[in-house]
Amino acid sequence: MSGLLLPKPDAATLAKREEIIADMRIIVPGEGIVEAESGMRAFESDGLTAYRQLPLVVVLPETVAQVSRVLKYCHERNIRVVPRGSGTSLSGGALPLEDAVLLVMSRFNRILEIDLANRAVVAQPGVTNLGITQAVEHEGFYYAPDPSSQIACSIGGNVAENSGGVHCLKYGLTANNILGIQMVLMNGEVIRLGGKHLDSEGYDLLGLMTGSEGLLGVVTEVTVRILKKPETARALLIGFPSSEQAGQCVADIIGAGIIPGGMEMMDRPAIHAAEAFVHAGYPLDVEALLIVELDGPQAEVHHLIERVEAIAHKNGCTTNRISNSDEERLSFWAGRKAAFPAVGRISPDYYCMDGTIPRKELPRVLSGMRELSEKYGLGVANVFHAGDGNLHPLILYDANKPGELERAEAFGADILRLCVNVGGVLTGEHGVGVEKRDLMPEMFSEEDLNQQIRVKCAFDPNHLLNPGKVFPQLHRCAELGRMHIHRGQMPFPDIPRF
Amino acid sequence: MTTFTPETAAEVLNIVRWAVGEEMPLEVVGHGSKRGIGRPAQTEHTLDLSGLTGVTLYEPEELVLSAKAGTPLAEIEQLLADNSQQFAFEPMDYGPLLGGTVGRGTVGGALGANLSGPRRIKAGAARDHVLGVHAVSGRGEAFKSGGRVVKNVTGYDLSKGLAGSWGTLAVVTDVTFKVLPAAETEKTLAIVGLDDGEAAAAMADAMGSSAELSGAAHLPVSVGGRFLDGAFSSEARTLLRVEGVGPSVDYRIDLLAGLMRPYGTVEIIEPPLSRTLWQEIRDCKPFADGTSAPVWRVSVAPTVGHKLVDAFRRAAGANAFYDWQGGLIWLRMEADPEAEILRGLIAHFGGGHATLVRAAPSVRSAVPTFQPQPQALAALTQRLKKQFDPRNILNPGRMATS
Ligand SMILES: Cc1cc2nc3c(=O)[nH]c(=O)nc-3n(C[C@H](O)[C@H](O)[C@H](O)COP(=O)(O)OP(=O)(O)OC[C@H]3O[C@@H](n4cnc5c(N)ncnc54)[C@H](O)[C@@H]3O)c2cc1C
Prior knowledge:
By secondary structure, chain A is an alpha+beta fold. In chain A, 36% of the residues lie in helices and 19% in strands. In chain A, a hairpin with a 4-residue loop joins strand 5 and strand 6 (120-123). Chain B is α+β, with helices and mostly antiparallel strands. The site of flavin-adenine dinucleotide (FAD) has 37 residues of chain A, from strand 3, helix 6 and strand 10.
């Protein structure tokens, strides 16, 4: 593990481990406690496998009352808690802490209600993202946000990470597709935000909870908006001799007022890796490949596909295929969807980054990345949610070679700095977690971060929930509450008034 | 009694710092077009942001626009329209309803009130489109959140947190919104003569079809005469809006017509009229009657809207119409607001909220204009307010619920 500082384990909590486990067994009877090292190993890391840590104990509650009692118990005794869904986070958000209870929500795996007339599904947080779609697809409905991890990741984890997917360009992120949640605060209080109605009755706490990475509360129920499946979907597979042309094509499509269902770009290394892996029929003589998917009523898709095709030609595409069947459309996607494992085949290890940039900066960022690639002596392949500027550079390295992991991490950090420098951000959908925690000051000033931590203070004043994640330094709430009064004379002289 | 009219974010910071130091509460306003919403202010001083203007960034191909908080919304909407773009959340104009003029309101106010319109059911509200803010907290500290890109999960989304906070947490000085292409055209399908319950069923059916509606409203006979210069005065209309490229709009209107025929006679309303109609629905035209009779804006699950109205009418005299597939109810009271009865019924029908968006100041001082919250949630709300504005300097009491 490369130099990551986690909060110092609390010796008093470690000393009382046996007692805590006994109490947890009372709150969550039956199979809900994992304390043996062999069992806990399964939970020692999430999707960011470079970091591993065994928790104090793993607790798998089954009811909201149990979650509430576990949190209240820990609150009263100052014991830290790390929530976990399916453990697919790519930023270490669910990384356990040595002195913390790991609260795993996977047994909350039931769909509670399907309400087609209100186009809502009420699900427990451990239901997988795909599980929601599967529960309603026989009626022709689906849940729109579709992270690539959708067969595994939980809807509770999606809320905590505000996850996205290729269809988010048109249909929005998790935040735009959930209607309400039930959650438990660290002190054990159970609250509801939203429901089947729209907008919140007071402050938009639902908006604050979405993307809060398990630091504000434990989600115990989610009400999502479901949509009717589009009548049809067709895709174009378009190759360009340069990424500049591909980038301009994306800009022109959007400039023409077209928001495709999905618009993905791959660079040469990613195209080659994907083609070698799944034989999707990708052209190998291009620098950039675009997949543009149009979905909706047949008349619309038919109309728009011609317009997109014309725009692609205008920008000098060298290949252009249009899917004529669902099978063909899926074959276009096969390579993109398998891009991560495909890259895994050409390199012993890879490190997936997640910056977002203003789209027009793509050529500058790609050439900056090439320079960094030379500097660090590591290859990089790019897949890119082109429509919304979300880049996933995959840095190729070999963890068995001394120093390569550290080099990959330094390379990754430089890429993210580059993203921030051109007006972008550190993470588009994977979250800050432990991974990008120490880069937060690249984007935020001390005052910016302090105001974010103050939000945490309103929810969890003792910093017991998932500490060590997101914020480089969790200042104590009492300290942050202190006011610095800038006394002065009334600011009259230079301010117009009447 | 001083009104401060800063022209820069630095001046805003100075004023708030002074107010914090002196413990002098401020009423924070843009154009003041929504001043009539919430508990009336009792502050000595006013922080007027209408001088903090200007679009600072607009890149149509990147779908992004930033502006200083006091920039007139109308000016921004014109700029967007000139580029065939729009704020997809269709911000309503409270002016007519509240007895003010049309076309007032600032972009900061749009965020502070979390404005939306009929397209809320498809495209969301201001909260769904805000990408970033710069603001000054009630602690007298400037902070920023978010950025200028759509996909961003770096840190807490404080921009969303400020949406619908009515200036009680922080003074927004700059705001960045996602913008989207405006639809090339639109049409509306009207079903004639349905009662509220039948309309709810028809709208649920239509929303559940692949017609991709961007509006679903029901205008009972009692309000029909107030739309399109009386065009609907004799029978109720249930309205379904379709937007997009021409061939798609025609195709979906046909699809809808087939689907809706069993419910009653259908009519097609063409673009120019359709546009005016949805603007009138958006701005609550029938109740913009120059009075200060209480008006509620109620949000519940779409399918229970009409049941709630039916039950409420047994207890109180009220006129009503529906947007958002029946989930947004505009209620105009004949006499008193009857807040407790209304909110009791909302709880009974599965939850939601009611905001008293219009009433005389004396009424707004006595009745909780915003929805009261259960104890644990109310306590959390208070803690959050304290973290942003510990001395209660910004719009004190405006969202008070007791
Ligand atoms: C192969 C692969 C592909 C991926 N593709 C995408 C993608 O396309 N788009 C995308 O956005 N992400 C993607 N991810 C990342 C990841 O799947 C998402 O972040 C997902 O939402 C995490 O869900 P989870 O249930 O696994 O959460 P976990 O990993 O268990 O936890 C993630 C965070 O959420 C918190 N948390 C979990 N459950 C709860 C709860 N009930 N209450 C409160 N906090 C909770 C945890 O504390 C942690 O901070 C991918 C990951 C993998 C491994």
